[in-house]
């Protein structure tokens, strides 16, 4: 494999790492939203059970749905985040291995060019 091929492959891996990092950030946002939904649904359910503010059966069902939906979303996004972070680690290891194959030169060894 030539040095240009390695450079192109490293560039492709870096693009993949960036895409995976965006996915991971999106998962973190969904995880936060899921936690907020679980907390809000739990609070609304508690308010409904205590009979505060005259809420009814619809609010109770809605709060239960909010809690359950938040739990499902939380679990799904945590799993996706773990898989994405694992893929990022594997891609970074491959990138480091490919960089190690390149015959790097120290800048001091190159001749100076005067313009």
In short:
This protein is an all-alpha fold.
- Would you tell me the structural class of the helices and strands? mainly alpha
Residue share in β-strands:
under 5%
**Topology as H/E string?**
HH
- How would the global form be characterised? rod-shaped
Question: Would you tell me the overall average pLDDT?
Answer: 88
User: Main sheet, how many strands, which sense, barrel?
Assistant: none
Poorly predicted parts: none
The radius of gyration is 25 Å
**Helix share bin:** over 70%
Care to count the β-strands? 0
**What is the number of helical segments per DSSP (H or I, 4+ residues)?**
2
Distance between the termini: 34 Å
Q: Mind sketching the topology for me?
A:
Elements: H1 3-50, H2 57-101
Helix pairs in contact: 1-2
Polypeptide structure, described:
- The structure is a single chain.
- Helices cover 81% and strands 0% of the residues.
- It has 2 helices and no strands.
- Helix 1 packs antiparallel against helix 2.
- It starts with a helix and ends in a 14-residue tail after the last helix.
Can you give keywords for this protein?
single chain, 115 residues, mainly alpha
